[in-house]
Amino acid sequence: MATGHTDPRRRERIVAATLDLIAEEGLAAVSHRKIAQRAGVPLGSMTYHFSGMDELLREAFGEFTGQVVAVFDTHLAAPAGREEAIEAVADLVHVLSEGSRRDLVLTQELYALAARRPAYRELTHEWMRRSRVHLEKYFDPATARQLDALIEGLTLHLALSREPHDRALTLDAITRITATGTPREP
Fold it and tell me: Is 160 within 8 Å of 144 (Cβ atoms)?
């Protein structure tokens, strides 16, 4: 493993180790020592690269939310119109709910942190804003906001349910919400 100045990816490894540790043990179990050990870096690297745990957590969760938004980008950037967008939202819900448990846990850890500490709400607000950018290409802002909340809720319910519902029920819920909104065509 590279050390010192010959280790240009050290900061990235620390951020990745932070997210992995949060997903495996929970935010309460995270410490500089555990992160350094997981990342394979000297403990001093933690304070060299980050002014404290808050800066590290903001960067780590910022990286994570960027990854989730990239999934939104993949599914919602291509639809040719409203009907295709409705189908894409249904696909997105199922892709997210069938994704890694790691992402599900990280999402919930971020929400809990943001609920307790207002400084982290900026991350969730930016995440929601970026998610709605795609939705607002096809739906009015109020409908986009409702869809964004529906995506979050259905994803969580599908991921945790003993008997998850099928895509048809997801599509029905999306269709009901979008039926009352003002259509927008790209």
Answer: no
pLDDT value of position 7: 79
> What is the pLDDT at residue 184?
63
Measured distance CA(123)–CA(21) in Å, rounded: 19
Which residues are paired to 124 by β-bridges? none
Give me the residues of the chain with pLDDT under 50, please.
2-3
Helix (H, G, I), strand (E, B) or coil at 143: helix
Q: Of the candidates 123, 1, 24, 114, which has an alpha carbon nearest to the alpha carbon of residue 16?
A: 24
The answer to whether the beta carbons of residues 17 and 39 sit under 8 Å apart is yes
- What pTM was estimated for this model as a whole? 0.84
Residue owning tokens 């280790």: 7
Query: Would you state the pLDDT for residue 89?
Result: 95
Q: Which residues contact 143 (CB under 8 A, 6 or more apart)?
A: 135, 177, 178, 180, 181, 182
DSSP string spanning 28-67? GG--HHHHHHHHT--THHHHHH-SSHHHHHHHHHHHHHHH
Separation of alpha carbons 76 and 85, rounded Å:
7
Taking CA atoms, 30 is separated from 25, 42, 62, 110, 165, in Å, by 8, 16, 17, 13, 35
For residue 2, report the phi and psi dihedrals to the nearest 5 degrees. Answer: -70, 150
Q: What is the pLDDT of residue 100?
A: 83
pLDDT digits (tens, 9 = 90+) for 118-134: 989 999 999 899 999 98
